[in-house]
């Protein structure tokens, strides 16, 4: 019995030791392979007034003004050595009727997966925003004034969230002494036509103290198979009365530079953008159409809970395709926001735009230019030379 009792105690001690070692190993592995998945989103809605939408005034509910209404899932898994696997799935929707923002697209805003390394940067693949937007856009008026009424007329220069690229690969650098860079390539995947429908984008940004500077480039190629910008192209862009005559372009090319300066509660900013619609064999126009935009903004935070912003944008079209008096668009935008908490904000937006000169209509004929405030009225331009928009809304983030 004595020997049996000793054997049992010895076995029990060895077993306990084995369990403790195994538990420590599992714990170490769990700490090494930490992962997280986050559900996030925004609900944003407002009462909007427009003095002229295709000839009539209108009062209606409009979502996605201060922020786009959306929900998403994002996650990260620590792979060790400073590397993580990441993903983001983001869907836009209209809270006024429950429909998706884009028919037929579940995660229309973003859907990508990739690897992130503290030293070498981030590599992602899927449907993504462009470096042009992600690095330059935060310094433009759509960030400080909202895209709904603050984006440059018709979002002609794609500095709001209207451009996402399918089938794209993006590399983004870490930040080196205030400097960062990013590049994207969208593959159309058309057999025998590697370059058809492809997208290129690149941008750089530098931040030091209260100064932020950025420059970016974006080129979206058509497939060359249809008379419009084909759905098979990797990129797409906002359409409005400003560019209705140039939707059959063989390529759209954007370039932008922007800068902001912040001191205390005050931020001032300047932006210049250049947009070119290049003609091709299927195009309904013959000459390259150019739009240049010059813009300025100011933002002031009176208190942690209350801030205001104002902006001015001047967009000039080129004299081309038989247009002798080229279109001009002037826009003034205002924003007031009161933050009830870190998550919930009450806001008021106002904007006025005036158009002059002529441009090409959707049928290729020369027509009088008409205004599209921000990018909230792209499908409902004014029938007169001026358009005013006012909104009162609430946004909550989760």
Automatic annotation (TrEMBL):
One GO MF term: porin activity
Q: Which GO terms describe its cellular component?
A: cell outer membrane; pore complex
Q: Where is the Porin domain?
A: 24-348
Q: Which UniProt keywords apply?
A: Cell outer membrane, Ion transport, Membrane, Porin, Signal, Transmembrane, Transmembrane beta strand, Transport
Fetch the Gene3D superfamilies from UniProt: Porin
Instruction: List the subcellular locations.
Output: Cell outer membrane
Q: Which Pfam families match?
A: Porin_4
Q: Where is the signal peptide?
A: 1-33
Tell me what topology the record assigns in the membrane: Multi-pass membrane protein
Q: Which domain of life is it from?
A: Bacteria
**Biological process GO annotation list?**
monoatomic ion transmembrane transport
Q: Which residues cross the membrane?
A: none
* InterPro entries assigned: Gram-neg_bact_OMP, Gram_neg_porin_domain, Porin_dom_sf, Porin_Gram-ve, Porin_Neis
What interactions and quaternary structure are annotated?
Homotrimer.
Q: What is this protein called?
A: Putative porin
- Please report the organism this UniProt entry assigns to the protein: Paraburkholderia eburnea
Which lineage do the record's taxonomy fields give for this organism? Bacteria, Pseudomonadati, Pseudomonadota, Betaproteobacteria, Burkholderiales
């Amino acid at each position: 019995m004595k020997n049996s009792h000793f054997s049992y105690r010895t076995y029990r001690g060895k077993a306990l030791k084995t369990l403790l070692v195994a538990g420590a190993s599992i714990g170490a592995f769990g700490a090494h392979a930490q992962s997280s998945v986050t559900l996030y989103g925004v609900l944003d809605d407002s009462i909007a007034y427009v003095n002229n939408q295709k000839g009539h005034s209108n009062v209606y509910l409009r979502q996605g003004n201060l922020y786009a209404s959306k929900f998403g899932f994002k996650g990260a898994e620590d792979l060790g050595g400073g590397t993580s696997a990441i993903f983001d799935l983001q869907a836009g929707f209209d809270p006024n009727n429950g429909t998706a923002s884009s028919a037929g697209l579940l995660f229309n805003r973003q859907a990508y997966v990739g690897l992130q390394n503290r030293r070498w940067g981030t590599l992602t693949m899927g449907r993504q925003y462009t470096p042009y937007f992600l690095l330059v856009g935060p310094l433009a008026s759509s960030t400080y004034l909202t895209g709904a009424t603050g984006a440059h007329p018709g979002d002609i220069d794609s500095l709001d969230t209207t451009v996402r690229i399918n089938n794209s690969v993006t590399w983004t650098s870490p930040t080196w002494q205030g400097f960062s860079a990013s590049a994207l390539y969208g593959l159309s995947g058309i057999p025998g036509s590697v370059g058809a429908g492809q997208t290129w984008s690149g941008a750089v940004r530098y931040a030091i103290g209260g100064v932020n500077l950025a420059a970016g480039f974006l080129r979206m190629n058509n497939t060359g198979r249809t008379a419009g910008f084909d759905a098979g192209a990797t990129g797409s862009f906002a359409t409005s009365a400003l560019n209705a005559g140039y939707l059959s372009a063989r390529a759209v090319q954007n370039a932008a530079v922007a800068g902001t300066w912040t001191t205390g509660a005050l931020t001032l900013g300047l932006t210049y953008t250049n947009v070119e619609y290049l003609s091709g064999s299927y195009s309904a126009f013959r000459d390259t159409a150019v739009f240049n935009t010059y813009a300025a903004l100011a933002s002031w935070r009176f208190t942690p809970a209350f801030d205001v912003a104002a902006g001015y944008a001047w967009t000039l079209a080129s004299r081309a395709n038989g247009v002798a008096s080229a279109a001009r668009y002037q826009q003034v935008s205002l924003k007031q926001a009161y933050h009830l908490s870190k998550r919930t904000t009450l806001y008021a937006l106002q904007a006025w735009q005036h158009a002059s000169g002529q441009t090409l209509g959707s049928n290729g004929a020369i027509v009088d230019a008409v205004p599209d405030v921000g990018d909230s009225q792209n499908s409902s331009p004014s029938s007169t030379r001026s358009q005013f928009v006012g909104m009162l809304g609430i946004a909550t983030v989760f």
